[in-house]
Design brief:
The chain has about 200 residues and is an alpha+beta fold. The protein has one domain: Porin chaperone SurA, peptide-binding domain (Triger factor/SurA peptide-binding fold). It is about 65% helix and about 10% strand. It has 8 helices and 4 strands. Strands 1, 2, 3 and 4 form a 4-stranded antiparallel β-sheet that branches. α2 packs across α6. It starts with a helix and ends with a strand.
Length: about 200
């Protein structure tokens, strides 16, 4: 099995004059350039989110999503029902029909099972990230907020501490949650043996 995966990692497949390259591996899953293209279209039309940043940033987004999905599956959390997957698939296809990328989608020759797998992964990963973020929120104390206020006086010219205290506490709590998520993503990359072939 290891030899097959190693072979796939360096294999370039040709499909309809498009080159499909293996770009990464997450655990036993090989991610191709084709999958990144499919994912970007699904992200834009289903999740109603801009497909984040440059192609390199989006590449990292897909890898992160795979690691979070793998962790959610391993712990049996944030499960997504088949009914939800089918509902989102119908919504996506309806959105795609009125889209300028419809011909590109056709050329990618995405099978139903493949689309459903991507939809399930995206929803399950998004739900698990939301759960982890909420679990990581630790309220900042008044003392921490005052310390931040005093260290950043230039940001608060003409404002009293009491008028901005709640906003500062919220910001500090959100910053901590984001930092905990970043640390968790690093741990997941190690746990699921992420290999970037192209970056």
């Amino acid at each position: 099995m290891k030899y097959l995966v190693a072979l796939l990692l360096f294999l370039n497949l040709s499909l309809e004059a498009n080159t499909i390259e293996v770009v990464a591996q997450v655990d036993n899953w090989v991610i191709t350039s084709r999958e990144i293209e499919i994912d970007r279209i699904v992200q834009t039309h289903l999740m109603r989110e801009k497909a984040v940043g440059s192609s390199g940033e989006y590449f990292n987004h897909v890898i992160r999503e795979w690691t979070v999905f793998s962790e959610a599956r391993a712990f049996g959390v944030s499960q997504v029902s088949n009914r939800e997957v089918h509902r989102q698939e119908a919504r996506f296809l309806k959105s795609l029909n009125s889209s300028s990328v419809k011909s590109k989608w056709r050329k990618l020759d995405v099978k139903k099972g493949e689309l459903r797998q991507i939809i399930r992964r995206k929803i399950q990963a998004r739900n698990f990230i939301k759960f982890k973020k909420e679990a990581s929120l630790v309220p900042a104390t008044d003392a921490e907020a005052l310390n931040f206020f005093q260290r950043n006086r230039k940001e608060f010219v003409g404002k009293t501490f009491s008028s901005v205290k709640d906003k500062i506490k919220e910001k500090l709590s959100q910053d901590r949650a984001r930092e905990r998520l970043r640390e968790w993503f690093v741990v997941l990359e190690r746990k699921y043996n992420v290999r970037r072939i192209l970056n």
